[in-house]
Amino acid sequence: MVGGKNLMYYIHYDSEGYILSAANHNNAPLWIETSKEIYQDFITGKKQFHEYKVIEDIRTKGKMQIILVDFDETAKNEHESGAIQKNTNLTKGIVFIQKENFWIVNNFIDDETATHLSIGDDYYKEYYVVDKKNRYILLDTFRINLKDFVLKDSIHLYGYCADKEVSLVTHGSHIPHVHITGDKNYENKSS
Length: 191
What we know:
Layout: E1 9-13, E2 19-23, E3 31-34, H1 36-44, E4 52-56, E5 64-68, E6 82-83, E7 93-98, E8 102-108, H2 111-119, E9 124-131, E10 138-145, H3 146-149, E11 154-158, E12 166-170, E13 177-181
Parallel strand pairs: 7-13
Antiparallel strand pairs: 1-2, 1-3, 4-5, 6-12, 7-8, 8-11, 9-10, 9-12
């Protein structure tokens, strides 16, 4: 506290969302409050103004967030190319729940990744449904437009061999994936 007041930190930006400055005042037409750490990252040069942008969070209208201008999707793969892991402990990413004759695909993608996907071009991710015992036996394929998917809590896909013992295979991704067979605890994200 200085002079009985708490210091506040702000990021000033233009109408396109490009960051203009970091300051301890909000005397600018467009600004958001930020943490002391982010403020210090910008004023010390650890973060460069031109590499970040302020945009509206796609899930919480009116909430603004700071994101990288160029999002490197290949920076770290959470899912390596191959079969999607079967697990019930995933709390983020894309969760495929295989039911008797359909799939529920739940969206647990983190806010920053979801925002980047929503403001970019269409981004189709292809999935391969293969025999559970031999991944070289292709049974079906489907594609999900992740740009549209991030705006929803979940989607249903009917068919695609959901009634068989299968595995899902896809290429590497910065988004974690999991395949669950009929687990009622993951029924619908919105439930």
